[in-house]
Amino acid sequence: MSWHADDGDLREYAHGVLAPARLWSVETHLAACADCRAALSAHVPPAEISAGWARLDAELDAPRPGPVESLLTRVGVADHTARLLAATPVLRRSWLGAVVLTLLLAVVVGLAASPLMLLATAPLLPLAGVAVSFGPGLDPTYEMAVVAPMHTFRLLMVRTVAVLSTTTALSGLASLALPSFGLAALGWLLPALALTSTGVALMARLGPVLAPTLVGGGWTALVVLNHLLASGTPVPFTAAGQGAAAVVTVVATVLLVAARDRFDSGRALDPSLRSLRSLRFAARRLS
Hints:
15 helices; 0% strand; disordered C terminus
């Protein structure tokens, strides 16, 4: 180097007050001159250097958002909500692949005989998705989710929306493969809402595994018995059955909203996690 930056310029550069023309010159020179970089460090307070390294470490250690999280944030979803949605197990390729294969099988059976297979299977998919998304032993992030300093009810609703959105879209596409059955191929929609809302409402008392299991088992038994004992369209998919499903959906939703505090009180959680969650909420209130 034939020249070095003036000490006064370095001081002004360190304090962010160097004029633009000289700023560009000094900044370009610093990139190639180790002596001037060493001289610059004498004008930067040690606290600012430590803070700068801390910010750099935090930026390097910050998790990089995946494609789903990036898409959600682009459409306006808050960062923390997008991360919760992206961590939902039902958005993984393994789960989506299983759902697609199940629906394909139901469509093949529907094309060969009747849409009963699709109508009976599609309502169970969102219920199973909720159990997978909020159940110990099924959701790999369950322990971290329930002890996070946020309302359990909100977490459950966020993931339920993710489940319903995904499975409803896939089931709707499967229904389009049965055009000869007309609107009857969409008979699974109201039962799906009824089963999901009932299962989520019962989670407050029975837990995130037992409640969906009982509701799903009851639905399967109802469809099988109706198929064995009656001919024609199964009752759940008649006009009366659809009306009953709509009523059950409304009633279960009301009961769910009324029981929302039970989720945050820890009654719906694994007993081993309740005390830890209470400590997290206490820390959140103090902060």
